[in-house]
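Limitations
The structure tokens in this dataset are predictions for the assembled complex, not deposited experimental models. Users should treat interface geometry with appropriate caution, especially where small molecules or nucleic acid strands are included. An illustrative entry is reproduced here so readers can see what is and is not provided.
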Amino acid sequence: MLSFESMIAWRFLKESRSQTILILLGIIIGVSVQIFLSSLISGLQQNLIEQTVGDSPHILLKAQENSPKSILQKGNQSLIIPVIAAAKKDAYILSYQPILKKLDTYSDLKVVSPLVDGSGFITKAEVSRPVVVKGVFLERADGIYKINQRINTGKAVLGGTGVLIGRSLAEDLKIETGSIIEVRTSGGNSGTYAVNGIFDFENTAINSSWIFMDIYRSQALFELNGAVSRIEMQIEQVFQSESISQKIKNDFPDFLIETWQTNNRQLLSALQSQSASSYMIQFFVLLAVTLGIASVLAIAAVQKSREIGILKAMGTRTNSASRIFLIQGAVLGLSGSILGSLVGVGLIKLFQIASQSGGALSFSIRVEFRTAITLIVISTIASIGAALFPARKAASLVPIEVIRNG
Amino acid sequence: MDNILVSLDSVNKVYGDEVKTQVLFDVSLKIPQGQFLALIGPSGSGKSTLLNILGALDRPSSGTILINQQNLGQLNENQLADFRNKFLGFVFQFHYLLPEFTSIENVLLPYWIGKGKPNRQIFNEAQRLIERVGLANQINKRINLLSGGQQQRVAIARALLNRPQLILADEPTGALDTKSGDQVLDLMQEINGENNTTFIVVTHDRNVALRAERIIELIDGRICKDFFPQEMGEKKSIEILESHACAWDDQSQK
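Predicted assembly:
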């Protein structure tokens, strides 16, 4: 059932068609630009983040590097240095299984993968190259590094003495799948391994130095007695890393928790300033649209003052009179922003088609439903706010004045 | 004597805060139920101000006004609005209908304002009223497609819908040609006779005034003349209207 105020508001809108269309156009343009802009920027950012952290861990759990401070503070320097070195060397997670078990119960962790990280040399026919050994459970690490997808030749298998090496390293040392290689550590240990596969991470640094090895093998190679260097994790929503890491920190207060943000400060601040400028543009678009609505509605209120006066003479209460304009604002804001969202989605589709045919689009844009809803809510509130001025005018209107001066 | 519908006691109206202009001086007046009263007077005599006070659109600076035993001074703004909706009907010079609406929608407005969406019964009543004012064929026509006289008749039908005790009309024939004006006046008098509805009509048109049951002339914010033209006869009435003597002259001379 339509209230009296809604009926009047609707009639006013219907009758002053050109004004209504003008306001609607304003809102549609404003909202569609906002949708377009925010989707474009968030698509760009997501793409950038995906490229940066998509195949690297989002959260790390490490052992604390407990330098014995009490010794540091006093006395003999020459004595201290080896002690610290020993302490640093000991920054391994000695018993990771209970931690792993616990982390596996976290529902917001997509991947939990313990890692042994060590450096060494690989030699083949008198040529030696420094390498980074990554001791992993392949099925776990694959969740982060997508090793399976990146194997060029051979198979992604780490059983027994099998290892996987990078493409550049393989080319450099003329290694093929099935070749036997020797890895030596700085500690003087060494082992021989069979190359099961060659991967390509599209990153020269990784391709020329990483070696994936079974975690137990790597523990033996580095004499770790079952310890691991760290536990790597990936989550679904990369920006939830801080809150999730806080949760982990609470459960494991003795360990060091790092998030991907720690190592990507620059990228983050760039993204933040990009977001800030996007919000600023959106804010001013909203402001301009709101001012436009306010001024058109204010004129409408003046034009309708005779009608409002007569309605008041016939017993319309002050609040009801102002509600007529607030309803107009709400109707305009809601319908305009819904239409604007649709137009915005259309614009993005057009943009995608245009840039795909040019082959320039290297990232995907998605309109997030939540963004559209937020914009619709904000625009509707802003339109109601814009209607406040004419509503107050209507409220303060004295019926005898319009009747006398009509 | 009949039931007194409207009672004014020493009503004063002063406009302005810095420069005070007094428009009404101690106006006291009793109007019985069912009277057809013409309020006349030159421009600036305060007749519109008086009409606005009677119509609960304006408040007196001092003095009391009772309509239907309700002291209007005791009502707040919203209560005044409700009172207008329930007890009063308005007909103005420039008919003041809503151009966005059809005849019947305009007639239904007072009900809509006061009580919400009209039911079938009210709809039929509105239809009956439009037929009563002779616009049976224009029920669903848009207001701006009607002539001035037709619009004024819609305004009268609208004023009648909530069965008000009192209808206030400000120059109801002022914007109409003589023939339409006569028709509108006839209609108001017929309704006055049928429903015993009280009418207060502000007019500057002597011919309109002479058709009323009672004439009150305001001069400079005071009641100058108050007489019953039908009882006096037309000739005597015109004489009274043309004379410059006022009620208070008699009193001061005595």
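Some entries come with short summary sentences. For this one: Chain A has 16 helices and ten strands.
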